[in-house]
Amino acid sequence: MTLAIDESARPICVAALYCFAPLADCGRLREPLKQLCDDRGIRGTLLLASEGINGTIAGTRAGLDQVLDHIRAWPGCADPELKFSSAATMPFHRMKVRVKSEIVTMGQPDIDPAANAGTYVDPLDWNALIDDPDTIVIDTRNDYEVSIGSFAGAINPMTESFRDFPEWFARERERLLGSENPPRVAMFCTGGIRCEKASAFLKNEGLDDVFHLKGGILAYLEQVPEEASRWQGECFVFDQRVAVGHALSAGTHELCFACRRPLSPTDRQSPLYEAGVSCAACHGERDDAQRASYRERHRQEMRAASQGRAHVGAVFAPSGDDDAE
Question: What are phi and psi of 292, to 5 degrees?
Fold first, then answer.
């Protein structure tokens, strides 16, 4: 006798993906992709631009495979960067396919990562590269991400947004690289998309010896044993996990709902911290009415969680939407 399988009891499969590829007519690609996602019960956000595709989607594994096969049939998209994870409940409440000017916003229209990115470095080869004293290592993430973890010795550009990276590099270029015999540059980010685009920017600036970590920090933490790791701290992620450690184990940070800053256990001991409402960093930036609104929202989220469902207003940043990966 064949037993019926209760699909609702299975965990949701989540796929984060990106691919730099020349997509000449995103408007034509958008509707068939959106229709396929809707037909297969897939939710999340996908961003299309002339430089490629990027996003995070969730649903059954069979449904995701059909959507991914559809994307792989596009020119240059046969081998997208992919990361799979699972969720107990659906993390998104609708499907969005958006056409934008960039799949990760840098504000540099003249660069082409599909044609002129730096050299990929496999996570297992990353230690040798960054241990070399002739290599300059740059963290291309934002300051609030770097604050909870990074590779030992990496330069923190102290940016608030990835769009600030070109200006920072222009300002610091001579100090970092000098005018003669510029050193090797190695860059990294959460999932690989920002450092890949940053590598194309540096090559467009005339640098040749440019490398970036394939699959980003997440691939490194997944593949490199903790005892051999050069990573220090936790890695901020743009989903409900907030942060992960080695082997992608759950981190200790939580997200402040009001300001979206990651909060350590010590941060959450502050008398100004209230779950879902405020933290020490943003308490003075909000008034009583705003905090009351956040408090009610948090109460609704906790009620939804106790019933095993996602709150309709839950916000998880999709991969690559501005600074998210």
Answer: -65, -40
CA distance 26 to 234: 36
Mean pLDDT of 285-303: 87
CB 261 within 8 A of CB 253: no
Residue whose C-alpha is closest to residue 41's, from 80, 77, 92, 3: 92
Evaluate the CA torsion angle 83, 84, 86, 91 in order and state its sign.
positive
pLDDT greater than 60 at residue 318: no
Task: Give, to the nearest 10 degrees, the angle between helix 193-204 and helix 165-177.
Answer: 60
Q: How far apart are CA 82 and CA 300, in angstroms?
A: 33
What's the whole-number mean pLDDT along residues 291-304? 86
Matching residue, tokens 């308490």: 283
Per-residue burial over 64-98, b if 16 or more Cβ lie within 10 Å, else e, is: bebbbebbeebeebeebbebebebebbbbeebbbb
pLDDT in tens, 247-269: 988 899 998 988 888 999 999 99
CA distances from 157 to 135, 172, 227, 320 (A): 16, 9, 28, 19
Q: What does the alpha-carbon distance between residue 221 and residue 225 come to, in Å, rounded to a whole number?
A: 8
Give the integer Cα–Cα distance in Å for 225 and 234.
15
DSSP of 14-81, one letter per residue? EEEEEEE---S-HHHHHHHHHHHHHHTT-EEEEEEETTEEEEEEEE-HHHHHHHHHHHHTSTT-SS-E
Active site (catalytic) residues: 189
- Which amino acid is present at 60? T
Q: In this model, does residue 325 exceed pLDDT 80? A: no
Q: Residue 307 corresponds to which tokens in the numbers above?
A: 């019933």
**How many separate helices (H) and strands (E) can be counted in the chain?**
9, 15
Out of 7-16, 143-152, 315-324, which region has the weakest mean confidence (pLDDT)? Answer: 315-324
Alpha helices in the chain (DSSP H): 26-39, 61-72, 113-116, 123-131, 143-146, 165-177, 193-204, 216-223, 288-306
